[in-house]
TrEMBL record:
Superkingdom of origin organism: Bacteria
One Gene Ontology molecular-function label: peroxiredoxin activity
Species of provenance: Ornithinimicrobium ciconiae
The protein's name: Carboxymuconolactone decarboxylase family protein
Domain Carboxymuconolactone decarboxylase-like: 11-97
Length: 145
């Protein structure tokens, strides 16, 4: 199988994704959500997609923003811990819904802690993160110690 670095093959498309990412991050802030919550969403989406490159990047980014090792250790099983606020739980569940595209059913994330603007911002952030994961995985971005 031929491995192609998609960002180098079509750099203009890569720059479009960079711009989309920037806009999604700004929408999160305009919606009144903490950028650290955005990092948690990016981590969870990357866990679901199995993207080592993005996981390493966003765990480092979250740590730089003050996230604790304990909370990072349990993001993959956030629903079983008491580390996350109601709003963080809603955002993580929503990001999972966006990533997995489930058959419509009652929304477990819809606990009233996110307003419409925040639901939109988290949804866009998860969509963008799914794009980055697919780009990194398909391009086989290196992840070495």
């Amino acid at each position: 199988m031929t491995i192609v670095n998609l960002s180098k093959q079509h750099p203009e498309l890569y720059q479009d994704v960079v711009a989309l990412n920037k806009n999604a991050d700004q929408a999160l802030i305009r919606a009144g959500l903490d950028p650290l919550l955005g990092e948690l969403v990016k981590i969870r989406v990357s866990q679901l997609n199995g993207c080592a490159f993005c996981l390493r990047m966003h765990v480092r980014d979250a740590t730089a923003r003050g996230e604790t090792a304990d909370r990072l250790a349990v993001v993959a099983a956030w629903w079983e811990s008491q580390y996350f606020t109601e709003q963080e739980q809603a955002a993580l569940a929503l990001a999972e819904d966006v990533t997995r595209l489930p058959v419509p059913e009652p929304r477990g994330w819809d606990n009233g802690s996110l307003n419409e603007e925040q639901v939109s911002a988290i949804s866009w952030l998860a969509i963008v993160m799914n794009t980055w994961n697919r780009l990194a995985i398909r391009s086989h971005y290196p992840v070495a110690p």
